[in-house]
């Protein structure tokens, strides 16, 4: 393999050059927006002390050792020849003392399983912990632990009932109460956070081998800044670098969630009016029972859309893999957004999108070879016959026009600077926790549909958005920086019992979403544990 050019004093001064390939894979641990934009503004990125020497040293190490690894290279060789030398570079104090300890057991864990590394901020902290080896108290000053695998090992796939690397690192974090964990096979390096990663499948990953092969020092920053000792050292404000990125991501997620609440309100209104306006549905909104039924079914469609957007973004539904990709909401939302941004509206009578969407609902309900069926009931046509894929015996199947459904999908899939203008930036559902969706769910439950007896205009009253008759407002003003919403006579709008146009609420976790996530992440880990217990029980009975 050709060696890349050494970084010189000249090219140190070169401006940051955009990469045409992803330098990291963020699986929901941080906010992509923070990593793509805010990170480069942080002083750690600007300074990156020692990065040139570290890049040269690790690239040389890779060329001399790891580049020659094969499938026969075992875990001990991988650690000795590459992982530990890299850690020596990343986790040494300026004076030269390393700040980690190997193979320290966590109490109450499998005697054959312990993390390979306990990382300390200072060598003196490591030395001070020696009297507590074997006790849980040993881990109190450990900011990060680590586990290593052989060079060709997958960090995801099971090699046995108790050998899922991700399950192992999450178990170590839970047992030790250490906040951060590093998992690596030398090629790929991952960072886990105890609470956030406990559901499984949530981590920050850098393909170090790929970066070294490409010889890109700017991409190397995404590795160097997150996996070195300095990333876990508190600054003058007692905040570490990884904590700063983590908090910044949480703040960003809260902002995304707040903006999404407004979009969800408008999406639900579009769905309700869409079902009612489709004449073949024969729905009379002046009948309170009918209006309530439409509201309930529109909520289910909305929950389904939120569920799919969340699951596709987190790859719980494989939006880029066939056969699912052809049916995915991801593909449909992009088609819709391109057209809406061009200024071309969809006709209200066409219902192609509804057919596509109900096909997707059926696929998720029944499953396929590429992914399991979701049996939580959310997509069950028997429970919601009016929005079923095909009409059930003796019941009417509703339709909704492309105009209304396209608006609802675009509102949920893209961030909008104005509620009435199509967005251009995807809503980052990977950033959101289920609690954010729960807050939205709770807020929607406070809203009830009302039929406008006359034209209404949105305005502020005591600082809260409300709808008032248009005849009472001569000059409608912006509401919280947005154009005031208008409701035509005969349209449905949503208000609380007190008449507020509100979209807030306390945190509540909707079971329909949590069940799926638990089943497809935690559920797999639980089943592995159950299999292990069953095997041990069988062995125990034989011994008896």
Number of domains: 2
**Rg for CA atoms:** 27 Å
Give the helix level as a range of percent. 40-55%
Structural class: alpha+beta
- Total of DSSP H or I helical runs spanning 4+ residues: 17
Q: Strand order across the biggest sheet?
A: 1-7-6-5-4-3-2
Overall geometric form: elongated
Report the end-to-end length measured between terminal Cα atoms. Answer: 58 Å
Number of strands: 14
User: In percent terms, what proportion of residues is strand?
Assistant: 5-15%
Report the mean per-residue pLDDT as an integer: 84
Which parts are unreliable, with pLDDT below 50 for 5 consecutive residues or more?
1-18, 501-511, 520-544
Largest sheet: 7 strands, mixed
């Amino acid at each position: 393999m050709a060696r890349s050019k050494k970084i010189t004093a000249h090219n140190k001064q070169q401006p940051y050059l955009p990469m045409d390939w992803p330098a990291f894979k963020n699986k929901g641990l941080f906010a992509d927006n923070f990593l793509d934009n805010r990170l480069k503004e942080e002083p750690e990125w600007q300074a990156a002390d020692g990065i040139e020497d570290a890049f040269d040293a690790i690239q040389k190490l890779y060329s001399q050792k790891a580049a020659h690894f094969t499938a026969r290279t075992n875990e001990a060789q991988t650690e000795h020849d590459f992982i530990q030398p890299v850690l020596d570079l990343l986790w040494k104090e300026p004076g030269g003392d390393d700040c980690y300890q190997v193979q320290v057991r966590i109490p109450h864990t499998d005697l054959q399983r312990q993390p390979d590394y306990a990382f300390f901020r200072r060598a003196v902290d490591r030395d001070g912990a020696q009297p507590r080896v074997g006790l849980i108290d040993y881990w109190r000053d450990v900011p990060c632990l680590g586990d290593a695998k052989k060079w060709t090992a997958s960090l995801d796939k099971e090699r046995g009932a108790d050998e899922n690397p991700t399950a192992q690192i999450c178990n170590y974090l839970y047992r030790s109460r250490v906040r951060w964990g590093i998992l690596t096979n030398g090629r790929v390096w991952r960072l886990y956070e105890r609470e956030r990663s406990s559901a499984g499948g949530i981590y920050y990953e850098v393909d170090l081998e790929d970066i070294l092969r490409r010889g890109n020092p700017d991409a190397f920053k995404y590795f160097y800044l997150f996996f070195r000792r300095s990333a876990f050292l508190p600054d003058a404000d007692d905040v570490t670098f990884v904590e700063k990125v983590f908090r910044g991501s949480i703040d960003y997620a809260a902002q995304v969630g707040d903006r999404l609440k407004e979009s969800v309100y408008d999406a639900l209104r579009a769905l309700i009016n869409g079902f009612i306006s489709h004449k073949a549905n024969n729905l009379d909104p002046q009948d309170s029972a009918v209006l309530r039924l439409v509201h309930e079914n529109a909520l289910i469609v909305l929950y389904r859309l939120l569920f799919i957007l969340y699951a596709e973004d987190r790859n719980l539904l494989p939006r880029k893999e066939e056969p699912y990709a052809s049916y995915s909401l991801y593909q449909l939302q992009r088609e819709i957004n391109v057209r809406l941004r061009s200024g071309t509206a969809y006709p209200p009578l066409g219902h192609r999108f509804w057919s596509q969407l109900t096909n997707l609902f059926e696929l998720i309900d029944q499953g396929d070879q590429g992914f399991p069926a979701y049996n939580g009931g959310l997509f069950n046509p028997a429970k919601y016959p009016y929005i079923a894929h095909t009409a059930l015996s003796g019941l009417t199947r509703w339709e909704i026009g492309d105009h209304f459904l396209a608006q609802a999908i675009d509102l949920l899939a893209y961030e909008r600077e104005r509620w009435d203008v199509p967005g251009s930036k995807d809503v980052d559902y990977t950033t959101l926790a289920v609690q954010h969706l729960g807050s939205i769910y709770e807020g929607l439950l406070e809203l009830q549909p009302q039929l406008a007896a006359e034209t209404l205009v949105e305005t502020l009253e005591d600082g809260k958005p409300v709808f008032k008759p248009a005849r009472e407002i001569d000059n409608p003003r912006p509401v919280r920086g947005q154009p005031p919403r208008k409701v035509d006579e005969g349209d449905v709008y949503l208000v609380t019992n007190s008449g507020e146009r509100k979209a807030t609420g306390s945190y509540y976790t909707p079971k329909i979403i949590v069940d799926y996530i638990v089943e497809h992440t935690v559920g797999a880990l639980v089943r592995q544990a159950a299999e292990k217990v069953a095997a041990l029980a069988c062995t125990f009975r034989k011994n008896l």
